[in-house]
């Protein structure tokens, strides 16, 4: 016996959110009950709609309830000859926030990870192959994470692009602008030496 | 243009949760969409039910969808002559976790804070007065927080209890068991000196 069933159930259900432990779930439930009932109702219906109606863009695989996401549906970007391959929709947002890329994306929704059963099929690579075979793509920019899995995934996709004679590149990894050398990890530092450019 | 409307709406709605900024809202939305659809649906319906059906216990004011919360409804504790006054339902849970108190509670859902428009009415003190006048209460234990507002609230309620000739006490504040003196803040330390007991 903790609280009454509906309150216990709310606290328990909030635990499905990443980073929410028992204490924060309680705090969230009480705050909603005390003074955010309207917002709580709105969240309930936003959740219900999104969970049941959001699928994947048929062109780039990002989340959307439409056939095409806003970028793939745009006349300006939807048929760009530049495709940037990223692991997650959050990566799209990060790149869009920069505002320098005006091509389209392909979202893997993960990276190759054979031990977890994630292979080329799970990453939608046959859909990417269709784009490559379509003759519309002039360059594939690989922006997977600089991790063992991200690198392996980038190499796999680079091989696919080469088979189609499509130019392929990998974004540079190195010391972040404004970052201080002494606080940068050694792997990043090694990458920044490997990727050095003549000035 | 960020994502499609349902996804944007989900991310925005998650911001009503305490401690959830734009980045964590995104992370939550993507995790739910990627691999927690069932849990997300369950959260949506738990939220909808709780927001619309949970009210307050008519005896102690804690959150419940019933007339009485489980403690007030229990035959063993519901008419206890000991009432512990706390600020929030979370305080009830903390005391219950200790397992040493077997009386009932009165939950203020706040503390006196005239500047925020929180007076005796907002804290349900007329309901508490009814309990005190009912002749069933032998002692009122004040467990409001050791803050300026919590103390003021405790004093106000202590005066009410005295008018009804009911014994009133305040829980002790001091150095936590297992705590190290040097890490305890000076206010707590002062309280622990004021509350010293002969051995
Ligand atoms: Zn798309
Ligand atoms: Zn109650």
UniProtKB/TrEMBL annotation, chains A, B:
One of its GO terms (biological process) is DNA recombination. Residues 81-176 form the Toprim domain. Keywords: DNA damage, DNA recombination, DNA repair, Metal-binding, Zinc, Zinc-finger. InterPro entries: DNA_Rcmb_RecR, Rcmb_RecR, Rcmb_RecR_Znf, TOPRIM_dom, TOPRIM_RecR. GO terms for molecular function: DNA binding; zinc ion binding. It holds the Pfam family RecR_ZnF. NCBIfam families: recR. May play a role in DNA repair. It seems to be involved in an RecBC-independent recombinational process of DNA repair. It may act with RecF and RecO. Belongs to the RecR family. This is Recombination protein RecR. It comes from Shewanella colwelliana (Alteromonas colwelliana).
